[in-house]
């Protein structure tokens, strides 16, 4: 936009269109998220480096409940459990018999799972949101307004209004794609899933 500083009128017109597009995209995303009080299913997560080479792939199941509650259970190849009850976040490694515990943070840049369970107005405040639609598929791209976070871009993909995948690109160019399957929304989820009680003998590490 700096290149066209001399074209003040054109610049203002473009800014108006961009602001309108962002507002419409945020409104449409809000409709999808407002219709999704809870979500559960299975996931396949693939991590690629900046050159596109697969670094790791994992599978598991998840539960999300807005706002701020999630259960992200990686079963293969290395078991790991991430749980939040909107007050604390637990990261449990059964192989190491350790659990890292820290207070829940409202920093949307920290944990991608939080983005799916947060209030959309917070998303709108912290991200530039654009929308691309093709048939029944909608793709929303969220770019952080503050760039020093853990990731540079988040893409949410909806098919016929249902969240089907999300993609995260970090500051090093690494791409993480989570494809969702057997997804159910607005089911009654057990509250105990969002609170972690360490098994006997587990080392508790508080951050």
UniProtKB/TrEMBL annotation:
Predominantly, its location class is periplasm
The source's domain of life comes to Bacteria
> Which InterPro entries does the record match to this protein?
LolA/LolB/LppX, OM_lipoprot_carrier_LolA-like, OM_lipoprot_carrier_LolA_Pbac
Q: Which residues form the signal peptide?
A: 1-21
Gene3D superfamilies reported for this sequence: Lipoprotein localisation LolA/LolB/LppX (2.50.20.10)
Subunit note: Monomer.
Under NCBIfam families, the record lists: lolA
Q: What does this protein do?
A: Participates in the translocation of lipoproteins from the inner membrane to the outer membrane. Only forms a complex with a lipoprotein if the residue after the N-terminal Cys is not an aspartate (The Asp acts as a targeting signal to indicate that the lipoprotein should stay in the inner membrane).
Task: Indicate what this protein is called per its UniProt record.
Answer: Outer-membrane lipoprotein carrier protein
